[in-house]
Amino acid sequence: MPLPTKIVVVGAGSASFGENTLAALLRSPKLRGSTLALVDRNPQTLNIVHRLAERLNREWDAQMNITSHTHHRQALDHRTDFVVSAIEVGAREDLWRRDFEIPLRFGVRQPYAENGGPGGFAHAARNIGPVLEIVRDMEQICPHAWFINYTNPMIRICNAVHRYSRIRVVGLCHQIYIGYVMVGIALARDLGFAIPEGIEGMHAHPVQYALHEQVKRQVVPRLDIRAAGLNHFSWILSIRDRQTGEDLYPLFRKRFFELEPAFEPLTRRIFEIFDLFPVPGDTHLSEYLPWLSDPVTQPWEKYNIRLYDWDLNAAVREFQHDRLRSMAEGEMTIEGLEETDSEGALEMIEHLAGAGTDYHLAANRPNIGQIANLPSGAIVETPVVVDGAGIHPVTVGDLPAPIAELLRREITVSQLCVDAVVEGSRSKALHCLLLDPVITDIEIAKQVLDAYLTEYRDYLPQFWS
Fold this sequence. Notes:
Blueprint: E1 6-10, H1 15-27, E2 35-39, H2 43-59, E3 65-69, H3 72-75, E4 82-85, H4 92-104, H5 117-141, E5 146-149, H6 154-164, E6 168-171, H7 176-186, H8 188-191, H9 206-219, E7 223-230, E8 233-241, H10 249-256, H11 265-274, E9 277-278, H12 282-285, H13 299-302, H14 310-328, H15 345-352, E10 358-366, E11 379-387, E12 390-393, H16 401-423, H17 426-435, H18 442-455
Parallel strand pairs: 1-2, 1-4, 2-3, 4-5, 5-6
Antiparallel strand pairs: 7-8, 8-9, 10-11, 11-12
Helix pairs in contact: 1-2, 1-14, 2-14, 4-5, 4-14, 5-6, 5-16, 6-16, 7-9, 16-17, 17-18
């Protein structure tokens, strides 16, 4: 039976989001007849995605009512059950580059600058305000609705929604599959996985994405991997063969260290030291560790931590928008959208709306004991079970004490970041930077903060009132 519901998608003009999540929602027989409200501040990209959605609606007979809006308030009403958010303030690549370059003026070289480090503070600070505006309107208009978040930094955004609103929040991310890919590469000859040539590592690159996907499609049906921790900072707890039930962690541990040492060398070193495998790959992992930013030893060189290629990915984004435009105008086939992955939104919406039960590999929810030795209420990432009664985290118990301490530090940094942004508190913002593993000097922390707040004054007026 179809389960008509109302879904509001904020940030619908995002190129990758429009191609993946919207196609998955419109392809669902269970959601046939639902209402889909598309929201984006950019009327040009919104128009493209709306026309594409209408084409998919016709050709796939989704029977959805599709609307588009340039502000979320126009889309929300009492019937809204889900708000899916993929917003990003500003021109993403340009701002990310600036987040990285500003601390360089003061001798602070971040390994990646997206979700952790000083760049994680700046990134979160810009996005928290708009997200809170959405959920506060939801409190007035549709307080029962779920907020499904894709915006980074994930734990800081979800933390803000959880602690500063009454809206239920879940954060979704595909990073767990990087763990699957690395496990698949290590166990390839034992389990018969075909590994394509050209995989250099798990860093963000369009060519690498396609190669990773080839491995993922083979490994996910075969292996059951359980991981837990924080988003982009989670750890594999168990690896089992779905066919036999065999515990494959001992074999994986042996095989991973037989791989070329140049393959994800930081992950290799951390696995060796802590005896638990970190999921996200070197680039994301490097953001949360206190051993990657020394200007003398330059460990980012030793571990070959690659920066995000801002220019390339901005060009790819433009290419994706052109592709969406071609599909919207009927110049290109939509066959490629028949197997897109919504990164969990589809499964969450279908099952929360009441269509059965789903085991989801990784979701970000407040800690109610699923990780016993991390703070209550902190946003943690674990497997969950989803059904019409809600999202039920899978309990994993304690994490090893050294790992839990690394995670606890990031939790504190994240909460200070959120409080600083909500309150416009420079002192809490400074505390946030001083506790961050990238920062090692009090005066430099203050200089970096002042430079960020000056550079982004238009985005962060609360720090100047």
